[in-house]
Design a protein that fits this description.
By secondary structure, the protein is of the alpha+beta class. A hairpin with a 6-residue loop joins strand 1 and strand 2. It folds into two domains: 36 residues, no CATH class; 51 residues, no CATH class. It has a four-stranded antiparallel beta sheet with strand order 2-1-4-3, with no helix packed on it. Strands 5-6 form a two-stranded antiparallel ribbon. Helix 2 packs antiparallel against helix 3.
């Protein structure tokens, strides 16, 4: 059975109940006598946090080091690499791996 939340427009009382679909379509009465409105469900993506340092209570997301490395690489390819290619020249850029052998610049998907 799904969990439904009802809210009274008069006294702002909220009630959450597990009801069958048939019973959820029936109007629910508040203690003040007003008919309660059915609320939309709250959908939330859970964020799993791992405790890294239990003494300081530092928590990180799962695979946070991989996320940070990927974000740093993407930033480097989009923002810093064109400046370095212009500064060092084509020959040095090919040596460093910023330009492919066919002369095209390396994209985000190519750097792993």
């Amino acid at each position: 059975m799904p969990k439904y939340t009802y809210k009274c427009p008069k006294c702002d009382t909220t009630v959450s109940k597990l009801l069958s679909i048939k019973k959820s379509k029936e109007p629910m009465q508040c203690e003040c006598g007003e008919v309660m409105n059915k609320q939309l469900p709250k959908v939330m993506e859970p964020s799993v946090m791992d405790t890294v340092d239990k003494y300081r209570n530092v928590k990180h997301r799962k695979d946070q080091d991989k996320r940070l490395r990927k974000r740093a690489k993407d930033y480097f390819v989009e923002n810093e690499m064109p400046e370095l290619i212009a500064k060092h020249g084509v020959k040095e850029s090919k040596k460093m791996g910023w330009i492919k052998k066919n002369g095209k610049r390396v994209k985000k998907d190519d750097m792993k």
